[in-house]
Each structure stands twice: as structure tokens, then as C-alpha cells.
Design brief:
The protein is mostly helical. It is 53% helix and 11% strand.
Length: 281
């Protein structure tokens, strides 16, 4: 449900993986649905969410998380018993709570967060290989059906993803640090610039602030939904900035160098680890 970058890429990836199914897309813009049909992203299009899920074995929510509650309430009566419902939302505590409440016994919900995407939006940017090698976080709870969890795990692996399971609370806390905080910082870096400075910006600045090009409505929903963790992360980040401010003194040069080297070494280790995960010997 939703045929933007992620929803469209899932449609293409499913076909590339040879998974036999019929992909039905829901969206509120006819032009987007027509583009998805032309690209071969979906096989059929529906303009009402309840029509899109009738007789479906699987439903994947690919809209902004702020729309999930209304969508789930709309589709719940139309779902066949045993239908598997998952999502691609960047927050999980509220999503899992809302889904388990709205669906109850009508379907099996398994929270998912494929850590893949870009700052671009729209089905025209969809790619069949978007998920290959990336991490997908599953967030089961005590109410999660074990068979549905296995099916969702196998599905994301079939698209080339590496899966891991976390509790919804742990997901939102940890993902905040490596996704929600960086987006907030990138946006702040762009917002604080003087026009004269932006005129001189080069590749380094553009690389550093790439994620600030994301959709404002989508990221508003994410930051507000996870606001307690975002606030905690921002406070810890502010602490690091205060440390840096304290080192901007002539007699703190060696300490500053060590701080910078430690950050560089930590990033190098992270990069080596990620490359090893993508290309194991």
C-alpha cells in the first residue's frame, strides 16, 4: 500500500526475485498509479485501500507512518483471516501497538523496517536492487504469530536483505541514533547556513547534508512519533558539541587531534565491518 520509492522498489524486487504473485498497488494519486503500472511495478491499481487488500495473502504498508492508523482501520474489515500484514515504517512502538489493536484476530501483523532508501521520493526512483545487502529489522512482540514472523523474515531475505530482530522499544531507541538524529542534524546544518556560505558549498557539504533532502511530511511524522528518543539523542549530541567547544583552545590542540582521530578510527572500523558484511569471504 503506497507506491513511492519503497513500495515501488518492493514491487520490482519481488518480480526480480521470481516470487510468483500478483502485486496490487494502492495510492491516492491516479498519476502515480499509472506510472507504477507503466513501469511494471504493480500489476493492478486500486484507489481505495480496502479494495486493494481483498483476497490478498500479504499486505505491506509503504506510506508515511502518520497514515498507518487510518489505513489499518480501513482495511481491517476487508482482510481475510490469516492475512500477513507488515510495513516499512521507520518507527515501531506506536506502529506495532496500533496494528495489533486495529487488526486483532483478523490478520497477523509483523513490524518491519528495511534500512534502505534515499532522500529521493516517488515511484520513478524505484529500483529492484534497493534492498540487496541492506539490513531489515523485524520487531515481533508476544502477540506475534511465529509462522507469520518466519514468513516475513524469509520474504525480506528473498529480496536480498539481512534480517535482525529487536523489540519495538529497542528499535526506536537505537535507530534514532543512526537515522533520526543524523537527519535532524543534517537539516539543522542546512538551516543555519548563511546564503554567502552556501554559495561556496562543495561536495563535502552536499555529502554531509544529503539526507536533509528527504520529504518533510514523512520526517515530521517520524521525529514526532519518536520524539522522546530524538530529544535524548539530541541532548547527547549537544554534549559532544560542548566537548568540541571546550577543545577549541590553543592549549587543547593535542586533545582535539585525539578526539578527531578517535572518530575517524571508529568510522573506519564501521566501514570495514559493513564491507565485510556485504562481501563475506
Amino acid at each position: 500500500m503506497g507506491v513511492g520509492l519503497l513500495g515501488g522498489s518492493i514491487g520490482l524486487a519481488v518480480k526480480a526475485a521470481g516470487i510468483e504473485c500478483r502485486v496490487i498497488g494502492y495510492g491516492h494519486r491516479r498519476a502515480t498509479l499509472d506510472s507504477a503500472l507503466e513501469m511494471g511495478v504493480i500489476d493492478e491499481a486500486r484507489e481505495k485501500p480496502e479494495d486493494a487488500v481483498v483476497d490478498s495473502d500479504w499486505v505491506i504498508l509503504c506510506t508515511p507512518v502518520g497514515l498507518f492508523e487510518a489505513l489499518l482501520k480501513q482495511i481491517a474489515p476487508a482482510l481475510a483471516p490469516g492475512t500477513i500484514v507488515t510495513d516499512v515504517g521507520s518507527t515501531k512502538r506506536s506502529v506495532v501497538t496500533i496494528a495489533e489493536s486495529a487488526l486483532q484476530q483478523s490478520a497477523h501483523f509483523v513490524g518491519s523496517h528495511p534500512m534502505a532508501g534515499s532522500e529521493k521520493r516517488g515511484v520513478e526512483f524505484a529500483r529492484a536492487d534497493l534492498f540487496k545487502g541492506a539490513r531489515c529489522i523485524l520487531t515481533p512482540t508476544a502477540q506475534t504469530d511465529p509462522a507469520a514472523l518466519r514468513s516475513v523474515d524469509e520474504f525480506w531475505q528473498a529480496l536480498g536483505m539481512r534480517t535482525v530482530q529487536l523489540m519495538p522499544d529497542d528499535h526506536d531507541r537505537l535507530v534514532c541514533d543512526i537515522s533520526h538524529l543524523p537527519h535532524s542534524v543534517a537539516a539543522a546544518l542546512v538551516a543555519m547556513q548563511q546564503d554567502e556560505a552556501l554559495a561556496l558549498a562543495g561536495g563535502g557539504f552536499l555529502d554531509t547534508t544529503r539526507v536533509a533532502g528527504g520529504d518533510g511530511g514523512l520526517w515530521r511524522d517520524i521525529l514526532l512519533d519518536n520524539r522522546d528518543n530524538v530529544a535524548a539523542s539530541l541532548k547527547r549530541f549537544r554534549g559532544e558539541l560542548d566537548e568540541l567547544l571546550g577543545m577549541l583552545q590553543p592549549d587543547q590542540g593535542e586533545r582535539l587531534r585525539q578526539w578527531l582521530d578517535a572518530a575517524a578510527q571508529r568510522r573506519a572500523h564501521l566501514l570495514a565491518t559493513k564491507l565485510k558484511e556485504l562481501h563475506p569471504e
